[in-house]
Amino acid sequence: MAHHVTQARRQLNFSIEYVLDEEEIGAIADVVETQVMPPRSYLLMHPEARLTDADRALVKRWWMGELPGAASE
Ligand code: HEM
């Protein structure tokens, strides 16, 4: 699991300096909508990481560019 977390951090790094390109935003949209992420195996140990429908709706507003500091800015 520690290896998974390292890999995940490499895949998804929300550091302030980092600007996501369209492909990365698309990948996030994809895994959030299909509920592939967070991984099931991770949720067994960290149930609080489960995204609710409201969480997914909020993330969707982010990638649609509807929030301040939007993904596509
Ligand atoms: C809502 C939270 C999360 C989001 C939005 C997210 C997003 C992503 C994205 C966009 C990718 C790349 C997928 C691709 O190749 O297109 C990825 C890969 C990955 N994520 Fe996550 N992730 C989340 C949570 C987590 C957590 C909590 C773990 C904990 C282990 C994790 C483990 C991984 C791993 C191991 C990969 C690389 C392996 C693979 O592509 O299947 N992710 N994630």
Describe the fold and architecture.
- The chain is mainly α.
- The chain has one domain.
- The chain is built from 4 helices and no strands.
- It is globular and about 30 Å long.
- Bound molecules: protoporphyrin IX containing FE.
List the keywords:
single chain; 73 residues; 53% helix; globular; 4 helices; mainly alpha; binds protoporphyrin IX containing FE
Number of helices: 4
SSE succession = HHHH
Low-confidence stretches: none
Percent strand: under 5%
| Overall residue-averaged pLDDT value | 85
Radius of gyration: 13 Å
Please, how many domains? Answer: 1
Estimate the global geometry from the Cα principal axes: globular
Structural class category: mainly alpha
* Distance from first to last alpha carbon: 34 Å
Strands, count: 0
Query: Which ligands occur here?
Result: protoporphyrin IX containing FE
Q: Into which percent range does the helicity of residues fall?
A: 40-55%
Layout of strands and helices, then pairs:
Elements: H1 2-11, H2 22-33, H3 40-45, H4 53-63
Helix pairs in contact: 2-4
The structure holds protoporphyrin IX containing FE.
In short:
With 73 residues, this protein is an all-alpha fold. It has one domain. Helices cover 53% and strands 0% of the residues.
